[in-house]
Write a structure and sequence with these properties.
Blueprint: H1 8-11, E1 13-18, H2 20-37, E2 43-49, H3 53-61, E3 68-75, E4 88-91, E5 101-109, H4 113-123, E6 129-137, E7 150-154, E8 160-161, E9 177-180, H5 182-186
Parallel strand pairs: 2-3, 2-5, 5-6, 6-7
Antiparallel strand pairs: 1-9, 3-4, 8-9
Helix pairs in contact: 2-3
This protein binds inosinic acid and magnesium ion.
Magnesium ion binds next to loops.
Length: 189
């Protein structure tokens, strides 16, 4: 069908920053490290919806030790590309984490507002440990310092989409991480 010949989402991408092959190799490496570090421990991967979903799905399968999953949903951004610093919990954990080893799995660390809030929220529940695994680190934008235990890629100060990351809830299903063409923002969502 010629009508399906042009994938419209990919047409909106100006530049691919990280290919799906690069992501897959990095995820395997991170999973192997996590499996060694958490061997024999009561590990809970706490992921932040919705952006971290593809990363979590791949990372957990690269981490071949017993583990549990739990989820938080927070709002920080609204529909635009700038953080407001106001973070709210939309969905809380389903199970207690007291005495357990928590590894937060997140798509991107930008200003640090979101993760700083999430870490305070988690530590208040007295887990044995809380560490952080992020796929993307944008250090140029950091406002609140956050230690990263497992880092996928450092990226420049550009707004990126794909592999879970959205612009106005779109582009999460792109298999790579890329930068949108400027006209996409100009036309709104
Ligand atoms: P922070 O609170 O500024 O660190 O932002 C964290 C959240 O903002 C992430 O979980 C993303 O949802 C979103 N975010 C930050 N930078 C980007 C980006 O470049 N593309 C898409 N979402 C982003
Ligand atoms: Mg996110």
């Amino acid at each position: 069908m010629t009508l399906l010949a042009r994938p419209q989402q990919a047409d909106d991408v100006a530049e691919i920053l990280i290919t799906s092959e690069q992501i897959a190799a990095k995820v395997r490496e991170l999973g192997a490290r996590i499996a060694v570090d958490y061997q024999g421990k009561d590990l809970v991967l706490v992921s932040i919806l919705k952006g971290a979903l593809p990363f979590l799905a791949d990372l957990m399968r690269a981490t071949q030790i017993p583990l549990a999953l739990d989820f938080l949903e927070v709002s920080s951004y609204g529909a635009g590309t700038e953080s407001t610093g106001a973070v709210r919990i939309l969905k809380d954990l389903a199970n207690p984490i007291e005495g357990r080893h928590v590894l937060v799995v997140e798509d991107i660390l930008d200003t640090g507002h979101t993760l700083s809030y999430v870490f305070d929220h988690l530590r208040a529940q007295r887990p044995e440990s809380v560490h952080l695994c992020v796929l993307l680190d944008k250090p140029a934008r950091r406002v609140i310092p956050i230690g990263i235990d497992y880092r996928g890629f450092e990226i420049p100060d550009k707004f990126v989409v794909g592999y879970g990351l959205d612009y106005a809830e779109r582009y999460r299903n792109l298999p790579f991480v890329g930068v949108l063409k400027p006209e996409v923002y100009a036309r709104g969502s």
